[in-house]
Amino acid sequence: MAEKRFLLTIFSIFTLSWLAYAQQIIENPDKPASNNPGRTVKLNEVLRIKDEGEGKEFFFKLPWGLDVADDGSIFVKEMDKLYKFSPNGKFVKNMVRIGQGPGEITREIENFTVIDNTLILLCASMNKLVTVDLQGKFIKELIPKKKLSDLIAYYKKKYYFVDYFKRNVLKKEAFIEYDRNLYVSDEAGNITSTSHSFPVKWYLDPGQDGRISHSGVTELQTSRVCQKYVYVTHTQEYYIKQLDLEELRVGKCFRRIYPRVKFKSDKSRPFNYYNDVYRILIFKDKVWALTSTFDKSKGILVDVFNEEGKYLDNFFLPLFNSKTGDCFYQLYFPLTIKDVYLYAIEHDNDWDYSVVKYEIVDGQI
Asked: Of 75, 51, 48, nearest to 336 (Cα)?
């Protein structure tokens, strides 16, 4: 009996040690280490790209993707198009070819990413990953041996993606969670499953006619796609995960004490709070968490962490167009950072879209 208790104790110690190694949770206070938190970081507008209406070279109907190459070329996703603009904002071409042949797609691009001097385009309806160079020349395509949904990373010649929503749903449920399971594909399309899942929450509204409509409550938000670490948030509460692609594990999770921001709910969307963190950006070697705190005169509160999950700083970004009123999905308008520039998709009061390049001016970040 004593021997069994000893073995059980050793097993418990080993298990706890392994769990601590496998997933370290870093708790941060409500105040950062900075001596000057809460300031407003200046954004100098460098460039603004606007279309000239339908029938012209390009037209922003619903731009919902944005990335920038090392040479400063700007790429904007528009349904089944991918517009390329020069570093000075001049329209270059549409990078998408419509069709069913090599390098061609038939429907919308779910997402895309710029990796070095190439573009990787995902057409989930065709289960196809297309790689072209920055001039649009076809390089290769990949048909993974599993249906994929979102490409979240490409690292050391491997693709990291999540599959489609998976969860049996009872119609009487109001709030449900859908699994977003992580898979890895090699260059030949061979799939490796992982133990990682990033579930998202949706709201089911039966409606007066009995038809079920879906409204997203949380979104799977990730950071850079070609580095060792990918930072992930997918919960309503403040919780950021560091996905280590080298070891394929969630090595660190970090959060801070955060006062939640109430959502002005209505009957169609009975939410109590905004998501605490709705976007993750990488600036140099720092993790920026764009929060739900919004000041009409200052902008959006951004929390800054290092790679170890320590809460270093916070400041306001004057991105007033990213949150106008209480429209939930406006929180997710595309943003990306390249060098010392922030790129954003914005709209005016008439919902005419533009792509804006800002210089980030702050000697403390």
From this structure: 75
- The structure tokens 């169609």 sit at 268
Q: What is the pLDDT of residue 6?
A: 44
* 313 in Cβ contact with 365 (< 8 Å): yes
> Concatenated DSSP letters for 247-305?
TTEEEEEEEE--PPPBP--BTTB--SB--SEEEEEEETTEEEEEEEEEETTTEEEEEEE
**In b/e form, how buried is each residue of 69-107, taking b as 16+ CB within 10 angstroms?**
beeebbbbbbeebbbbbeeeeeebebbbeeeeeebbbee
Query: How does pLDDT run across 28-84, given as a tens digit for each residue?
Result: 999 999 999 999 999 999 999 998 776 678 899 888 899 999 999 999 998 889 999
- For the whole prediction, is pTM greater than 0.85? yes
Closest CA to 313 of 298, 323, 303, 327: 303
Q: Give the pLDDT band (50/70/90) at residue 305.
A: very high
Three-state secondary structure along 314-326? EEEECCHHHCCCC
**Secondary structure tally for the chain: helices H, strands E:** 1, 31
Q: Which two tokens stand for residue 239?
A: 């919780």
What does residue 9 show for φ and ψ, rounded to 5 degrees?
-65, -45
Determine the pLDDT at residue 88: 96
Whole-number Å distance between alpha carbons of 67 and 76: 7
Which residues lie closer than 8 Å to 264 by C-beta, 6 or more apart?
326
Over residues 116-145, mean pLDDT = 90
Give the chain's domains with CATH numbers: 31-361 (2.120.10.30)
Tokens 């949706």: give the residue. 202
Beta carbons of 257 and 273 less than 8 angstroms apart: no
User: How buried is residue 172: exposed, middle or buried, by Cβ count under 10 Å (0-12/13-18/19+)?
Assistant: exposed
